[in-house]
Predict the 3D structure of the following.
Amino acid sequence: MGHRDYDDAVLVTIPATTDAVQAALYYYAPRGWPVLALHSGTSAGGCTCGSPDCNSPGKHPRTAHGLRDATTNAETIRELWARWPDANLGIATGAVSGLVVLDMDPRHGGEDSLDELVRRIGPLPETPEVLTGGAGRHIYFAHPGSGQVIRNATTLGGLPGLDLRGDGGYVVAPPSVHGSGRRYEWESSSHPDDVTLAPFPSGLSNLVAARAARRQVSGSDAERIPEGERNATLTSLAGTMQRRGMSPAATKAALIAENAARCNPPLTEAEVCAIVESVARYTSAVSIPVPPWGVSSDERLAGLFSTARELSAEAPATAPYIVNGLLARGALTELAGKVKSSGKTTFALALVRAVTSGRLFAGLSTTRTGVVYLTEQGSSSLLPALHRAGLAGDPPSAVEN
Ligand SMILES: [Zn+2]
């Protein structure tokens, strides 16, 4: 039943710190949340990593081992920001920090998706939350424990703009500077000092489990289709469906579902229909029946149409391979890798080396031929690659036929 005078009362206000070291040392490390030094955005809209085509400006780790460098060690934290005072700050998610973060990105329709999520699983509990500076929200939950793995997920529940950061992930955290120039901030009534972490909602847990089950059924097919690959991927899917005998109507229905679940952002229904129609045209073109007027007997039409029997008589028995089973003469072969350092140049130059010398490539026989290699790569990085491939020493073999 004590009584305190106003004189004794101390009003403590903790200003939102704009100092990453302070945030790391006094807010995050004491909670056992390992932090990461991240790159920063530049005023020109670039990234301090200096790569002109950086696909994650100001959001990827500065240190050599990325996520594995996440730390709660005060000395390391001080050293990192002494070295890069403007570094953005990331927090590792997953069992390592006890965090799972729901990431709402309004640029991909995340606001509507969050509304839809609440309709499906009910309101989200009170829990710490970050405003990203780009009108996005990071909603923090307690990780269910080290026995359970919560994977990173994009387009959670098929909802665009809703991602989950769990085991093996991280989030950009306050006081990092967003690409918009504004800082990431704790939502004023949802600072972790004021609100305790809510348990990971069972509704979200169910969505994650459903996703894992779907992935087991269809393998990597359940992956999200990025913007630049939507047309090609859906066209390929439609082709597969029709070759297996699905009707255009069934293909269309399946493709509309795939588009909604996996494309981010989804194509319009008209675009999906156009894909199905174009695929229906070319898949039916190979089985055109012989017209009643008789193509083969009409000289005016000779050469314009072929029956399936005529085509199969013309087709060579074996493909004219340059690298057996891999690279055929007259065919377009695409070599794709997701990231810059995935080894595309090394692979392509090893292929050039094998083909120009007629040697085995990865155990496959080759037919010796000349190669024209077109590249936008600068000579400073191409020359070392040519040396590594053993191509720089004997230029004649690369051009002779
Ligand atoms: Zn970068």
About this structure: The chain has a mean pLDDT of 81. The chain has three domains: 20-211, 235-315, 317-399. Residues 149 and 217 are 19 Å apart (CA to CA). The pocket of zinc ion is lined by residues 39, 47, 49, 51, 54, 56-57, 60 (CB under 6 Å).
